[in-house]
UniProtKB/TrEMBL annotation:
<feature type="domain" description="PH">
    <location>
        <begin position="37"/>
        <end position="157"/>
    </location>
</feature>
<protein>
    <recommendedName>
        <fullName>PH domain-containing protein</fullName>
    </recommendedName>
</protein>
<dbReference type="InterPro" id="IPR057446">
    <property type="entry name" value="PH_bac"/>
</dbReference>
<dbReference type="Pfam" id="PF25362">
    <property type="entry name" value="bPH_11"/>
</dbReference>
Length: 163
């Protein structure tokens, strides 16, 4: 009998922890929705594809805080993705989630990084695109299947690049 009660107590504590995490995520999404502009929808035609790579969309964070993940809508959900650079912007086509569109005029640059949104890799394991959404600066992270293409992305997205 005491094992059953102990098991129920452990399960109840676990359920309470999961519920607290869920409420925290929802509260973060509400707070961020109050000050973030609406994310742009991809246009009907994104233009000519200049670069393309597959991998995992890691997440989007606020400004320079590599752990402050954006939770608005499904932007905070990791997913397998295809990253495309076109002449009009950057398109992150995510499996099981809505696409993320970054207009070329809002792109401020790109870099490689060790970590973003709680995902930590080896040195230069992530491609991070810095961009503006309204008056806020965001960083969007992508872990490519082929990390050798990161240099091309950084060159194309930084000022003076080909984008």
């Amino acid at each position: 009998m005491s094992r059953v009660l102990l098991s129920l107590a452990v399960f109840a504590v676990f359920a309470l922890i999961v519920f607290g995490m869920w409420r925290g995520w929802k509260a973060r999404a509400r707070r961020q929705a109050a000050f973030l502009a609406e994310f742009p929808a991809p246009p009907a035609s994104t233009g000519t594809t200049m670069l393309e790579t597959t991998g995992v969309y890691v997440g989007t964070t606020l400004g320079d805080d590599w752990q402050d993940r954006v939770a608005v809508g499904d932007v905070g959900h990791r997913a397998e993705a295809t990253l495309r650079l076109t002449d009009t912007g950057v398109l992150v086509e995510r499996t099981g989630a809505s696409p993320l569109w970054i207009p070329v005029a809002d792109v401020e640059g790109a870099r490689t990084a060790r970590g973003l949104a709680g995902k930590v890799m080896t040195a230069d394991g992530l491609l991070v695109v810095r961009w503006r959404l309204g008056d806020r600066v965001l960083d969007t992270g992508f872990r490519g299947d082929d990390k050798d293409v990161y240099e091309q992305w950084v060159d194309a997205l930084n000022p003076g690049g080909t984008a």
